Amino acid sequence: MTLEFVPFLPEGLHAIRRRECRGAVDVLAALLQDVQALLGGLEMLVAQQLLDAPQALAVLQQMRGKSTV
């Protein structure tokens, strides 16, 4: 998806292209919020010392392994 202006496209197609880009931005914003929530939860667990160092490392490695980003 690009935001460049293509002069020969009808105006309706420009509107569709803008909607597609907004949709992609919304998806990325939702993903960022999910990642922030996950990191916040992990930070809270570590801060409360509910995980010792080897378990925390295992959780981080597992999260990194499952990441699709």
What are the defining features of this structure?
2 helices; elongated; mainly alpha
Shape: elongated
Helix content: over 70%
Radius of gyration: 20 Å
N- and C-termini, Cα separation: 18 Å
Indicate the multimeric state: single chain
Mean pLDDT: 71
Structural class: mainly alpha
Count of strand segments: 0
Strand content: under 5%
Q: What's the story with the biggest beta sheet?
A: none
Number of domains: 1
Helix-strand sequence? HH
User: Ranges with pLDDT <50 over ≥5 residues?
Assistant: none
**Treating each run of at least 4 consecutive H or I residues as one helix, how many helices?**
2
Write the layout of secondary structure elements.
Layout: H1 11-47, H2 53-66
